Amino acid sequence: MDDAWQFQVRITASAALAASLRGDPSSGTYAPLGDVLRKYHASLKCQFDAFADYVSEAERVGPEHYPLYHWTRETIEKPKKKARYLRSFTLYVDGEEVYSKAIADALQAELNALVGAGGIENVVKFDTNPANSPQPPAR
């Protein structure tokens, strides 16, 4: 049933690497990661920045059109969660947030080889199956 779903890979970086990646998402400052990104036509997006962009857009257009607005805003305003999401990065492949299992598996394998070196602490693969997705708490 994996063929029915698409996938996404995320990395957790040390605070120092994360700060560098936020300023240089192509990872020019960490060559091994940059090599993997180029190989898969991938780019990084900091989860905190993605959340902040979502909140900004919702506030511009109207929060009533954004079902996760209140949850997302509360999340990025909490210092512990902000610190966590500043270190988490989503990999986009060819500009897409989700992609095939084959690409996700290959990315995950190559990135796992970098864990422990240069500041990459963890690599996680997610799927688009709603049963596997955490849901925001009910209000």
What does it look like?
It contains six helices and four strands. It is an alpha+beta fold and 139 residues long. The protein has one domain. Strands 2-3-1-4 form a four-stranded antiparallel β-sheet. The longest helix has 15 residues, at 47-61. It is globular and about 40 Å long.
Strand order of the largest sheet: 2-3-1-4
Q: Share of helix among residues?
A: 40-55%
Order of helices and strands: EHHEHHHEHE
Largest sheet: 4 strands, antiparallel
Structural class: alpha+beta
Q: Which blocks of ≥5 consecutive residues have pLDDT under 50?
A: none
**What is the rounded Rg?**
15 Å
Share in β-strands? 15-25%
* Mean pLDDT across every amino acid position: 91
Shape: globular
Query: How far is the N terminus from the C terminus?
Result: 33 Å
Tally the helices.
6
Quick structural summary:
This protein has six helices and four strands. It is an alpha+beta fold and about 140 residues long. The protein has one domain.
Tell me the layout of helices and strands.
Blueprint: E1 7-13, H1 15-23, H2 31-39, E2 42-46, H3 47-61, H4 69-77, H5 79-86, E3 88-93, H6 101-112, E4 120-127
Defining key terms:
single chain, 139 residues, alpha+beta, 4-stranded antiparallel sheet, 6 helices, 4 strands, 45% helix, 19% strand
